[in-house]
Amino acid sequence: MHSSLEQMTVWGLVSEASLLVQAVMLSLVLASLVSWYLIVQRSAVLRRSEREAKAFLQRFRGSAELAQLQRECAAEADQDAGVQQLFQAGYGEYLQLQREPGIAADAVIEGVERSLLVAIAEQEERLEKGLPLLATVGSVSPYVGLFGTVWGIMNSFIGLSQVQQATLSTVAPGIAEALIATAIGLFAAIPAVIAYNRFSARVAGLGARYYSFGNELQGRLQRRLHSSASRVAVAA
Length: 236
Hints:
Organism: Ectopseudomonas toyotomiensis
GO biological process, one term: cell division
Subcellular location: Cell inner membrane; Cell membrane
Strand content: under 5%
Number of domains: 1
Structural class: mainly alpha
InterPro entries: ExbB/TolQ_transport, MotA_ExbB_proton_chnl, Tol-Pal_TolQ
Oligomer: single chain
Shape: rod-shaped
Membrane topology: Multi-pass membrane protein
């Protein structure tokens, strides 16, 4: 009895499992691989976005001429530069509305605000890409593994009913191979849940930073419009 138990290995138990349990294990391993790919890829995207947001805010606050800053941004064209994309959207809309004759300053600011809201929504969608899949892997994998475990234990007891004398050596392999499915499910779920919670917090932080920048850009453009209107009034 002891020798047969000592010869049990994880790979041997997996290879001896039923086809359904093996399919469950394979699906969980694939889900784990996909979630780890997303964890690495999303972590890199968020890190670049956070670094860019901090750097561009310093450039924006230190730049006296927004037109020059826009030309520099157009030449760079960084897809992960979220704040930079917001600036181009807001300032581009400002320049376009400024060309319309007789338009009021409030109408210009409202147009800039709408453009910024659209750009922020696009950036949030870009940052949240892949997070629903991580949430799905984190919430579903334990139940899929539990299903494989229940099925494996059920088969073990069915086989046990056909044996005249039940011993630990006859029961242990079937139960052990069934429990591996739950272990793989937890292995897939735990990193996905941790990553999802962490990434969601970072996305929320970046979203708050985007809205803050949008308000800052609007305020700066509004002051610019008012100063221009004041100079026109004085000249008249």
